[in-house]
Hints:
The protein is of the alpha/beta class. The protein folds into two domains: 36-69 and 348-452, Aspartate Aminotransferase, domain 1, CATH 3.90.1150.10; 74-345, Aspartate Aminotransferase, domain 2 (3-Layer(aba) Sandwich), CATH 3.40.640. It contains 14 helices and 17 strands. Helix 8 runs parallel beside helix 9 and helix 13 (403-413) packs across helix 14. It starts with a helix and ends with a helix. The mean pLDDT is 97. Pyridoxal-5'-phosphate binds at residues 120-122, 125, 154-156, 226, 231-232, 260, 262-263, 288-289.
Amino acid sequence: MSKKERNTFLSLVKRDLKVVWHPCTQMKDHEKIPLIPIKKGKGIWLEDYDGNQYIDAISSWWVNIFGHSNPYINNQISKQLDNLEHVLLAGFTHEPAIDLAERLVKLSPPKIKKCFFTDNGSSAVDAAMKMSYHYWKNKGFKKKSKFISLSNSYHGETLGSLSVSNIDLYKKTYEELMIDTIVVESPDCYLKNEKHTDKQHTEIMFDKMLKTIENNHKEVCAVIIEPLVQCAGYMRMYHPIYLKLLREACDKYNIHLIADEIAVGFGRTGTMFAYEQSKITPDIICLSKGITGGYMTLSTILTTNNIYDAFYDEYTKLNAFLHSHSYTANPIACSAANASLDIFEKKQIITKNKILSEHISKSLKSIATHDNVGDVRQHGMIAAIEMVKDKSSKKPYPWEERRGLKAYEYGLKNNVLIRPLGNVIYFMPPYIIKEREIDKVINVIEGAIDIATK
Ligand SMILES: *Cc1c(COP(=O)(O)O)cnc(C)c1O
């Protein structure tokens, strides 16, 4: 690296820290932990101004599924730019939004017929909550105003979506501002009794959900849930049977099932959408993150005609869903999403991911035997490793020790971007990663575990 490049690097860091307040960050950490200005991205690689390269092993917070600066998506976006950058979606429409809505409906179960656009994951969850609540109001159920969610769940950071989330780290400070919600213990299979299979554990845990529904259904609008993997909740996983049982209970007691597929949608867990593995149709599906291939902020909620029809009325009845965002269905974002769906089709990504996830599974085998690894778990293209202080009791390291941070720093030194959640190192790569690159990442993860558990 030349002196000039080094100076650019340093000056960018200095300028940034003067004016930028970063997300999910204690800014004081940057007195010690260097901030990394990225110059460019290509495929799975990120390159900083110092000339260092990093494999993006977490898909830039789970959004980038086909690599950085993907030539096909770039091309489709630039074609769209020549025609229309944006137009409001009320009273007007455009081809990229229509195409995308048609395709998403087609990828969904037969009862899902409508697509309501929002513009980021949290806003999709907020809109889904409002839509469910409003549906019951329009239908004359005056008492329904509550939501049920799982412990250790994550649905976003806005006040509505944070209310149905359940991770203390993000929520506790704001407790007084939260909407009152009902929390049911998660079926998290990491916590199962060793005697049970994942399926048995999940079924046993469903009893708690069923009891809560039985006791509260008159006041409950919906159960909101992350299908199969609680991603921000330390990548904890459960068996698909849970959603099947939940669907039956929601039907019986007149409650909506909202599937938050924001992290697990678009091929992450081995199927296009995670709920498919339970063979259910949710009432409302929230999508974002991977939807644009990681290019732009966009989200949608998909729903049934049954819900749509409850809002369809004379204007003066004031039953319409008057929710909106300025950048609803931005045409450039929609064109990126359509390009991303093209790649899914043309390259048969779901089939190819099966081979990749088998490879990940094989290369993870040796990690499980590590003295300070309490669990290695995987659902398709998500793998997670739980570092523990004591293997037999699964006693965790105290969070204050920040073991994950040590793993992060080791990763960066070895050209891999991992960003552990507490004591959990996870691997969630773009789908274009190659087998030898997977091996490289897993190798670095092994080294990171050694360093972090010392
Ligand atoms: C990331 C995430 C959200 C929030 O999406 P943002 O775009 O970050 O607001 C909601 N639900 C789940 C499951 C997520 O992983």
